[in-house]
Design goal:
This protein has 108 residues and is of the alpha+beta class. The chain is built from two helices and five strands, in the order ααβββββ.
Length: 108
Amino acid sequence: MSEVRYSQMTEHELRQEIGALKEKARKAEQLGMVSEFAVLERKAVMAQAYLLNPEDFLPGEIYQIEGDPGTYFKVDYLNGVFAWGYRMSGSGEEEALPISMLIPAKKI
């Protein structure tokens, strides 16, 4: 079976994939399979990134990180569905986050 890349999926296929991943993650969590749960959650976040428009995320802007209240991320540049930048309270080390993990600071 050949895997289809998220970038090649239609919006409908992405939404189906996200639903399936979240269901598998829920089951893994119920069974206490912590690492499996984390992997499935991460895959769902990646798939969600492909439903967003990277042009809505601007270099120089600061965003809150989804699931990490009080942690802010400053975007330096975007590459596909990844925002490259650094955590405001971190070491200043550059890292990449899927844009689906970023919440505009104005919405907080």
